[in-house]
Amino acid sequence: MTRRARLWSWFWFALGVLYFLLPLYATLVFSLKARRGVLSLLAYENVLGDPRFVRTFTFSLEMAFISIIVSILLIVPTAYWVHLRLPRLRPVVELVTLMPFVIPAVVLVFGLIRTYSRGPFALVTSPVLLVAGYVVLSLPYMYRAVDTGLRSMDVRSLTEAAQSLGAGWPTILFRIILPNLRAALLSGAFLTVAIVIGEFTLASLLSWPAFGPYMALLGQDRAYEPAALAIMSFSLTWVAMGLIYLLGRGRQAGSQLAGTH
To answer: Which is nearest to 75 in space by CA: 172, 140, 169?
Structure first.
């Protein structure tokens, strides 16, 4: 690499760092100016002392956990079967999983309300409909995480080896495939949590006390607390990314052996 190319590389790298970090730095400084003349954690104390913060954040975490379980039970067997038996249908399945990018969330929620507002499946007042919407929104991310995990292993050899030892389909799926998908499932799970925590449209129009509507409501009558919430959300995201790295780091050494013991 020539000196000129190296300088341009550092220039674009520095520009990217400034692009991402400068707004965060400005938001952090602004969130610390809730008390006039000094830097303080007053905005963070106000957020953490608000009972609505704990209630909405806990509710969103519960919905995220249920959505992750439903997504895993729906996507892992489907993706595994497509890899093993129906590889020709993979483009069709990938196209279906991209539909949430095409259909706006507001269209999705009005469709769900219209379909499930009357019998025999009146679910508008049930959190089941909210979880179903979250599963749809997280479908592209969870499916691609699982698909990437399946591509990184020899699914056919693992399945044939397990069958030769007398294992049935439940054993193959839950004791061989799922352990080898640990890092992929963690990636999809953390992306699902990030989507559910920040989601506004579904929770607001279905009238559920989620974290997204709380952040929007807080931004209407407060100045410093929304900035504090943004910094806290960013910090939680980085913690999640760190957990993905730490938990997935040991996968290379042990994942391919998980189904052989």
So the answer is: 140
